[in-house]
Every structure is written in structure tokens, then in C-alpha cells.
Amino acid sequence: ETGVTQTPRHLVMGMTNKKSLKCEQHLGHNAMYWYKQSAKKPLELMFVYNFKEQTENNSVPSRFSPECPNSSHLFLHLHTLQPEDSALYLCASSQKDEYNEQFFGPGTRLTVL
Amino acid sequence: GQNIDQPTEMTATEGAIVQINCTYQTSGFNGLFWYQQHAGEAPTFLSYNVLDGLEEKGRFSSFLSRSKGYSYLLLKELQMKDSASYLCAGMDSNYQLIWGAGTKLIIKP
Question: Which one, of B74, B63, B100, B99, lies nearest residue B18 by Cα?
């Protein structure tokens, strides 16, 4: 238990569906992250929020839309995804400072049919 | 560009020692992290090095050479539960983590 929770743990969706992934951190951190993890590839940073403000968007397609209503919650809204978007989506949080150890949630295994 | 290289897969025997190497190229450098990730689970923090040398933590040790852009994770007295992927990540000048693809470690009895 890392103090970061994610729901759902597994999600299967069609290309025309709309769904949302949820992340919550109970660590009092000020930064939250979305990563995509595909088999045998490095973790791909998608979005970073510092104090609820988005500071990074690594050229992520607009079919992925993040939302950070407060410093404890982070959402990833999904719309008209492609089969190649199937992956493990990991949320992380950290106290953004010189150390910046990131704590990860268990991830959502997404399958797009 | 920024890059982290580590072997894709390694195999070792229970009770033995294994060293997982990592080379990094980052824009600026603010430290090197190692994480462990069991299949289907979240990555969990193992170690952080920012100065040259060896940091020991129980059965696990991590080494850093900044001049060589090199780190390794040393696992002693291997146990079956150590079968996992080990992720190397360098922190750049913006305190952003640059991740390697991970090394899958297989432990055999």
C-alpha cells in the first residue's frame, strides 16, 4: 500500500466509448502524474500537475484529457481511443522538491477493442 | 537527447548475487532512482543515489558513478520473491524522471 489508489483496476472499452480513470493520493503531496506503461518500453510520462496546475503535456493525443480538481485527486478522461492505447496507466504523486521520489498507484489495465 | 539503458532480462539462481547495470544520459543530473515492480503491481522505491559511491540497504545496494554516467543495483542472497522488473530512472535538471525500459529478473531455484 503506497498511499496512492487507482480505480478501476481493469477496464475494457470499445473505441467509441467514454470512460474515466481515477487516482487519489493520501500522502499530502503537491504533484501528481499520469504515466503509460507498455510492454518492454520505458514509462511514458503523459501529464504532470503541480498544485493542481498542469505543467507538462508530453504531446499526448487529445483523446486523453486530464483533470485535477484538487491536489489529492487526478482523473484521466478517455474518448474514442485506439487499440494501440491499450496499456497499463499508472498514477503517481510526489512532493515536488529536489528529491522528488514518486509513489505509484497499482495502475489501471486498459484494453481497447 | 535523454536516454536510460539497462538490460532487458537477466536470470539468476536463488541464494546467489546479481548486478543490474544502468547507463544514463540526462540533461543535467539530480540523482538516480531504482524501483522494483512485480508483475501487475505498482513500481516501488528501492534506492536513490546522487553522490558517487555505494549505498547499502539490507540485501540491496546501489552504486553511482557520475563521471561514467553509470549505476548498478546489487541484489544479494537472492530469494524467489525478488523475481520482478527493476526500473532505473535518472532525474534531469528539471527534476523530471527519465525512465529505462526495466530489467526483468528471473530467479531460478
Answer: B74
